[in-house]
Amino acid sequence: MITVRVDICGGARDGKSALITSLGTGVAPEGRRFVVVESTSDEQYTRNLRDGAPIADVSVVVVDARHGLTAATRRHGFFASLLGVRHVVLAVNKMDLVEDAQAAFAGIDDAWRKLAAQLGLANVACLPISAENGDNVRERSAAMQWYTGPTLGELLDRVEPEQTRLREQPLRLPIATVSRAEPGGLEGTLVAGRLRTGDRVRVQPSGQLSRVSRMSGDAGDVAEATVGQTVTIALDAPANVAPGDLIVLADAPAEIANQFEATIVWLTDAPLLPGRSYLLRSGARTATATINPLKYKIHLSTLDRIAANTLAYKEIGVCNLQLDRAVPFDPYKENRDTGGFVLVDKFTGLTVGAGMLHFALRRAQNVHWQAMDVNKAARAAIKEQKPCVLWYTGLSGAGKSTIANLVDKRLHAGGRHTYLLDGDNVRHGLNRDLGFTDADRVENIRRIAEVAKLMVDAGLIVSTAFISPFRAERQMARALVTDGEFIEIFVDTPLGVAEQRDPKGLYKKARRGDLKNFTGIDSPYERPEAPELTIDTTAGSPADAAEVVVEYLKRRGIVRMGDD
Question: Taking the chain, what is the end-to-end CA distance rounded to the nearest angstrom?
Fold first, then answer.
């Protein structure tokens, strides 16, 4: 079955019913069928991406001969290229309403082929039609004898379904479930190639080699399976396989990387924030993904590349994408299943974006972890302490820096090895290039979290005094270190109290409108949900709060002080 998507542009829209009716569901001489799916808006493209709906085999873009190519035509052509549609036809409608139809069509055909070249569309065609009369739709037009090419129906009849191409590609079998209740128990649906019993295969990303000893489908054991078939396989050698792993032929593996260039389509009202961590899901595979940086976004009407730091709802951009682990993949245009993904908000569970992997970044292949003989445990042992991050968070004026400084003095006096990263101090150097937009705040905390991780690896007790208003970034910082090494300290001060203190006069400026994106006034603060410590600064002095923190560290066995 071939799926044909019909995209109607502008003034051509009033002939859509005639075209759909005239085209209908076709039957090729060989018996192959195609089904027509009508589309009228970009919204449908983004919904299909979000929902993982099937992509058409052929895109038919219909334009009005009186108007030629428009911004809508460029958008539909761009989406066809973005989604890897391999056959795109421009149907120039209402040819019966233009003078010198042959010359008018020739001009549109030339402009279309230039646009197709710009978009990287390879298999393109252009033909003149009159949908109302059925001319060149299913039947050849007597009124346009100057056109000698195929009708729209003939073009569609010649198209090979995407599945036919995928059958000839190297094997790709993503494992969806692993059942211990039956022998083998590795179940998945082939998204490329063929698999036969006895084939020598590789499990990616682990690289384990084995052979397929048994394979079963809905009707029992099978000797061979191909694209679209769901099978359960058993391997003849023990292999540690998890959902999301990829089964490939031993001599035709997929690439493996953790850094990519990718296109992102943003699907929610909350903006994309480079540096923030999202869950990336591709089939049964899940990884943590960070977008950094966003290279540019695309103006859909002009196809211009525009410098941007973020994406709003339905905007499309190209970025560098970094994952927390290496994964097997194919470029999206080769295989939508192994190259496509969605991004999910870690806290709400909502899909916020969809994307396509282009290629692995060279640094992903060239940069490797260097083994060190002196590790964190050795550095901590010589200091006689357990390294950790004391992450102070709260509103401006809550007292974070004051309390953190007192704790640092107390630990230093007790012979402990510490460092204090203060929000204002860091902005004089490492983060001097960042402002206070949401995107800059995310990047500010990402950098600090990475520095804190290095200091923990050095065996230090490192304190950070930053507003860090977003839960997502605090969770990201926690995930960078080992369980038990991140201690979130919520310095809980009501907004009214913090505003009365206002040691730097920032609240007054924010209330006057002189200071934008100020946390608590026109930028949100997301309270911690389960901090290790909560300090109510209205119930005691900063010195009392510092003593609470030190006593907590003693109880946890993180430090022993000279007075113990």
Answer: 77
Q: What is the pTM assigned to this prediction?
A: 0.78
Average pLDDT over residues 247-274: 94
Residue 145 maps to which CATH number?
3.40.50.300
| 468 belongs to the catalytic site | yes
| pLDDT value of position 126 | 96
> What is the rounded CA–CA span in Å between residue 86 and residue 123?
6
Q: How confident is the model at residue 19 (pLDDT cuts 50, 70, 90)?
A: low
Distance (Å, whole) CA 346 – CA 539: 34
**Are both 400 and 434 inside the same structural domain?**
yes
If you search the block for the tokens 């040819």, which residue do you land on?
95
Q: How far apart are CA 34 and CA 474, in angstroms?
A: 51
Please give the backbone phi and psi of residue 556, each rounded to the nearest 5 degrees, phi first: -80, -10
Range of the domain at 129: 2-160
pLDDT for res 41: 59
Catalytic site residue from 17, 468, 523, 541:
468
454 or 33: which leads in pLDDT: 454
Largest CA distance in the chain: 102
Same domain, 153 and 18: yes
For residues 165 and 390, give the distance between their C-alpha atoms in angstroms, rounded to a whole number. Answer: 55
151 and 180 share a domain?
A: no
480: in domain:
yes
For residue 341, the model assigns a pLDDT of 94
Domain end point (choices 114, 131, 160) = 160
